Here is the input.
Amino acid sequence: MQHSVIDREIIGRYIGQPGQLPPALRDQIEREWGNEPVQLYAMSDLDAGLRLVESWVALGPRRLAIARPHNGSWDVRSIDRLDIQAVHESPGLSANTLMLAGAPDEPPLAVARYTQRQRGAFENIRFVLDEAINGRTVTSDDADRVYSDAVARPIRDAQALVARRRATVTLRLLKYLAPYKRQVMFGLGAAAVITIVSLVPPYLAGYVLDRVIRPVQAGTMSRAAALPIAWLAIATMVGVYAIRQTAAHLRLRLMSVLGELVARDLRAELYEHIQRLSLSFFSRKKTGSLITRVTSDTDRLWDFVAFGIVDVSLSMIMLIGLSTVLLLLDWRLGLVMVLPVPLLCWMIYRHGERMNRVFLRAWRKWSRVTDVLSDTIPGIKVVKAFNQEQREIGRFDERNESVTDEFNRIHAMWTTFWPLLMLAVHTMTVSVWFFALPRLLGDGAALSAGVFVSFLLYTTMFVAPIEVIGQMARTMNRATSSAHRVFEVLDSEPEVRDAHEPVKLEPVKGAVSFENVTFAYDGVRQVLRGISFEVKPGELIGLVGPSGGGKSTVVNLIARFYDASGGAVSIDGVDVRKLDSGHYRRQLGMVLQDPYLFHGTVLENIRYGHHEASLGEVIAAAKAANAHDFICKLGQGYDTVVGERGHTLSGGERQRVSIARAILHNPRILILDEATSSVDTETEREIQEALERLIAGRTVFAIAHRLSTLRRASRLFVLEQGKLAESGTHRELLAIPDGIYRRLYEMQLQLA
Amino acid sequence: MNTLERAMPAYRDRETEPLELRHQSDGRLVAGIDGRRVAVKLRQCFPWSEPTRYISLRDSDDKEVAIVDNPSTLDNESRQALELALAEAGFVLEVTRVLDIDEEIEIRQWKVETKQGNRSFQTHLDDWPRVLPSGGLLIRDVAGDLYRLPDPATLDKKSRALLWAFVD
Here is the structure.
């Protein structure tokens, strides 16, 4: 689903403010502006007295309008954008003020106040106005989308799908059962058999008592006539239990395997989808939360498919079956048993709701306990250094006591409730006795001893299904929450997608060109503003400039982690958007500031991306990367396990393994992102040496803070505020008086 | 001069500077320090522990130009200008009634009445209201807005029942 549609839904459902500028107001503003379009807008939700209101600020190509509600219509005041000479924003705890200043010492042209919720939308307006004051024009193509994105983003980041009705989610989950129709039918069939045959033994007991035992005892039936029936009854019982347990085996087996298959399918689909998603998705979601979705959430869904669905549907069948049989046996006694059932289900449901509240409170207090642990255990050095052990023990004890009180409250509740519920069931049983005994003794409608016994046996069967149905809401809640979290990921679309018939560059030569490239992560605030350059194959380009200047964005666009908002990035003259991105990235290498090594051996890590490389090639690459020596010194050489839970390598060692990996990968275009920033001088020299071997004959883009490392670059690109401010060789740039590069270089010399 | 003061001379210097605060005709708050006039924004150093004292005055680059440790030492006009600006900078929504708290997937949905009007907002499920040093609760929603409940015990019965799980 499109983000803008989700955003509008989020705003409508959760935030309770208009999902867009009211159309009538938009018409009114555009009419007043002589049909110029509204390009951006934001809702100003606080008035001068800091009360919550709905006012709007709209921005057009030449004017800005402020609309305040007035007697059921809108009071619109427009100001000329050329009159705005400065924009001041004062952020507060919850109230922000945007002030548009005109001539100095004149009252402000306009003042808008708003809560943090509207801040993103106002930031966009402020950005465009600031740019205009600095002589740059920024336009937005879709005001509605930009507004809804800014307002809904915090909620969307927390919950990417609007919580749909539980029924919709459940139905979608059930679709995953479609490939396994046969197993589902058999599983449900087996479960139905269990239910039906379970009803037989009590009935049989009553039947044998009335039709065999009592007649024989009364002398109205001979033992000879009774015996075959008795044997038949025993045989039936044997048959019933044999069938029941066979069906139970089938049901458990089929459904647990089926649940596993569904969970496997979901996990596979989920993981495959996660791999295809763009980097922007990962910057929004926490790693832990994604891992939970693939593991615990799918596991919970297994539980639901394997047991939840069947348990709930069978308990319903069981209750209906029991009620029918009881009413058919004796409707008066039947009513005594059946009428209280809905009440019992409701009681269990209510109890569950109350427990939820208590659990919530206990959860909050429990997280206070874990907070102390996750604070003090990693920070134990500080605790000891400041001699705060006693204070921390006290803090923990206080919270531990407090959470124990809550747990005891929970125990008090459930240990009271369940005996009470059983008491209610027993009351029903006693009621059956109360109504049945006088009838057994001859008062009122006749009742046979057999029917009475059947009733007593059936009574015991009521408890289990009532319990399942009472907890149905909770089971469904848990399953739909998990399903929702899984579907949320599955429904996220990768933002970078390959063209219909992608081009494969065979091989990539390494010419990179940027043609008036603009880029904004959020669609409005540009990080790159019209950058153009041409790089020939084999050039070493150093990207320098203050942080936030756009260096990382340039390499992100070259690697096609994102697509440019405007202009074009081309590789060997072909727009990257037309390339087969998988094929292209195989010819692209990256060495990052903090290289990531996967859990596995050094060998596996060097071979990552090039699994067929021979051991000789691996050693050659490691030697070129100055890594061979230290690898040999590791306990198990190239077979030493590193990465998470493995042998810990130092930053410089990891860096050299990652360089070996890049050398083996043999990319045509190489990106070095601050590759030597976090190591000591000696290690830096070794890495530098390794890098020099790596970069030979490739197009290289290197980001570095230490400018001295870039002296060998063919050219340096100085990026400042998203623009290519200077470019040339080290020598050329130093020759520019008051140049940015020269200033940065001199500053570093002074620090060195 | 005690050890702490000797260790922090910069703090003492600023404290003794004469300071004048005015609202300029263009709407901005301007601080006059030693003959200089600088447009400033306010930042409370202790919004909950000591909201009306230790106010940091910051220029357009967000650098501190002065700190007002006690507004009562300012001249009348400066104090009024400071209080006016502080009302905005320290503004948070004040909850007077809780209408509903509902748990959804990943988020908790709150419907409240505030002194400023009705409002719905959302928090992460594992974000709990914070107990303030002066008492009362503070809730931060997913967008960063703050909601203050000065004294939950004095709210109506339904609000208290809804808040029960969140208050000690």
Q: What stands out?
A: The first helix of chain A runs from residue 3 to 15. The radius of gyration of chain A is 37 Å.
